[in-house]
Amino acid sequence: MDLMDGIRRNDFVIVGRVGMDLFPAPGTATEDATSFTADMGGSAANTAAGIVKLGGRATLVTRVSDDSVGRFCVNKLRHYGVATAHVIPVGGEARNSLALYESRVENHQSVIYRNGAADFEMTVADVEAVDFSRFGAMVTAGTVFAAEPSRTAAFHAFELARAAGLPAIFDVDYRPYSWPSAAVAEKVLSAAAENADMIVGNDEEFGFMAGSLDRGLGKARALAEGGRTVIYKMGEKGAITFVDGAEIRTGIFPVEALKPTGAGDSFMAGLLSSIAGGHDLKTAILRGSACAAIVVARPGCAPAMPYPDDLTTFLADHPGPTDT
User: Fold this and answer.
1) Taking the chain, what is the end-to-end CA distance rounded to the nearest angstrom?
2) The domain over range 3-316 is classified in CATH as 3.40.1190.20
3) Which of 30, 105, 128, 266 is most enclosed, with most CB atoms within 10 A?
């Protein structure tokens, strides 16, 4: 199936983690907090929630801890409308990831607990239980490749998706704390990118895969020469998208940010939902950027993801993206 045709079905199977987020009141340092809000986190789960809130369908494939935190995560997935038939509990010492972060930009602190992460227990059998032919496209993020048995299972998911005719969308999502070494991450993430039809990452992530920041843009171009669509994000400088031999340059929607987290997940959800809604690629990228701007200006990640009316209002009220 063609990449865009698959996305237009607006029904995604998403392979990756779900976790618990804890965050204090806006502007409050963690060490000064007396209470925290608990909600859902994890890049794959956030993207899934964002897609559903924008009117699409999403099924998550992962493992969760067989305890109260794992059940919290499953309950939150269901709250956001994400299908959980392939969210499998695992016992023993495995634990769900926990992100403790602040709603402030200056002196922002994020503390991530990933020791013995339950999502790394995803197996080949877990992905083989998925009927990939039911979906339009597969989405996965880099963290799922950081450890075994999840790494092998995720690469097998690529194979199963391709056999079923599904295009694969890969969010590089490099998180150093999840990997045994930078060398392993560079090799594995590059291999994952080679298997994808669309790759989304920032300049630092492409630079990492290329061996140095100044070579990242070249890495993105090289991946696109294989027929892939590659979105190279540059923070305040916007993004360059490589597709069919062309380069599309897009700006960002400046806002007063409340926090730096959640932007990438919201961008992905907005991008895919906008393509599914019939928008051309450049417009879809801009709408994804608008979704990212909305999320960084609100507390939380999944709860901050916009609904269609939120996005429509934002685009109507904002003066527009920066020039490129």
Assistant:
1) 33
2) yes
3) 266
